[in-house]
Amino acid sequence: MKKVSDEQLKSWMEHVRIYANNGKVADYIPALMRQKPEINAAAYYDVDGSCVGAGQTEYRFTLQSVSKILALAVALMKHGEGAVFSRVGKEPTSDPFYSISKLELEKPSKPINPMINAGALAITNMMCGENSEEMVGEIIQLAKELTREDSIDYDEEVAKSEYESAFLNRSLAYFMKQNGVITGSVEELLDAYTKQCAITMNVQQLARIGAVFANDGKDMETNEQIIPEHYAQICKTFMVTCGMYNASGSFAIRVGIPAKSGVSGAILGVVKNQGGVAVFGPALDEKGNSVIGIKLLEIMAKHYKWSIF
Ligand code: GLU
Questions:
Q1: Which residues does the chain have with pLDDT short of 50?
Q2: In ligand 1, which atom is closest to the CA atom of 288?
Q3: How many CA atoms lie within 13 A of 239 on its CB side?
Q4: Which residues have any ligand 1 atom within 6 Å of their CB?
Q5: Considering the domain 79-197, what is its CATH architecture?
Q6: CA–CA dist 227, 176 (Å, integer)
Q7: Domains of the chain, residue spans
Q8: What is the pLDDT of residue 225?
Q9: How many Cα atoms sit within 13 Å of 288 on the Cβ side?
Q10: Distance 112 CA to ligand 1 centre (A)
């Protein structure tokens, strides 16, 4: 098993940077539109506790859909598998993440999985709390434990920008409220969900989260079981089947590791028993995945024989 070398990671990053020209920064959330496409960063956090990085490794970005993994883990830990899967399904879909079509076709109306926006909203609806701050606080708490970084929080400006422009997510939520999939105030839920998506960290912190998942939910330094192994396994399975939007199948062939991406340009990857990898590059392909992120992971997966298949 070859260890990821700092020098090699830096030289691969130099090589893939140029691919940012092939993508576009997400523009449907006004605050994300202001992200600079040339920013790039990558980190690999080994389960032995060492970490290597390339690019702007201190740069903090919002997690966006990567946060769906954390929310799912919280929901599983707080409510158990039965409650979670009575709200959302387990199957992948070829629909884009914002799609409403299956909600109307499925009877009873239940989001097809927890990684599409409808499913993620249903999961965030399971966070305990009197208000959006308390609800997102549950997810932030887990992020703090996984990164061992007490300063983790959400970016108020990005959260507000998305909250004010989340017309599609609002319509998904109201549709689900009408059909009894979610309960309580839709606006409070939207507030919690957009804050969750705006949770901010750098690639080293995100890679550490990946390393804990790679270590079956157990912190490699303290040996604390932060997420029960079975729940960590469920999260990783969704990363394989639905983590890269409706490009999850081609990503599985090209790279072959559990991964979750977000429209900010972040990708979190998990290399079983070896480590966590995080890449950030805001230029996205047409499916919403970071162009340089996919390219870098493809190179690394080939070189280190990471594919689980
Ligand atoms: N906050 C984004 C949304 O709900 C997250 C989407 C994503 O990263 O895939 O539209």
A1: none
A2: 9
A3: 31
A4: 64-65, 97, 117, 162, 169, 197, 262-263, 288
A5: Orthogonal Bundle (1.10)
A6: 29
A7: 6-64+200-304, 79-197
A8: 98
A9: 24
A10: 16
- SS3 for 22-75, per residue? HCEECCCCHHHHCCCCCCCEEEEEECCCCEEEEECCCCCEECHHHHHHHHHHHH
pLDDT at 107: 78
Nearest to 208 by CA among 224, 199, 219: 219
Q: What is the pTM of this model?
A: 0.97
β-strand pairing of 61-62 with 153-154: unpaired
Residues 143, 95: Cα–Cα separation, whole Å? 29
Tokens of 19: 């691919």
Catalytic residue flag (residue 44): no
Task: Check residue 102 and give its pLDDT.
Answer: 83
Residue 182 structure tokens:
């979610």
> How many CA atoms are closer than 13 Å to the CA of 204, on its beta-carbon side?
14
Topology of domain 6-64+200-304, CATH:
Beta-lactamase (3.40.710)
The residue written with tokens 């980190």 in the block is: 43
Q: Residue 174 to residues 129, 189, 226: CA-CA distances in angstroms?
A: 20, 10, 34
Q: Which is catalytic among the residues 245, 248, 255, 295? A: 245
Residue 103 has what pLDDT?
Answer: 85
- Kindly tell me the burial class for residue 286, based on how many C-beta atoms sit within 10 Å of its own C-beta (0-12, 13-18, 19 or more): exposed
Which of 183, 165, 173, 171 is CA-nearest to residue 263?
Answer: 165
Rounded Cα gap, residues 16 and 9, in angstroms: 11
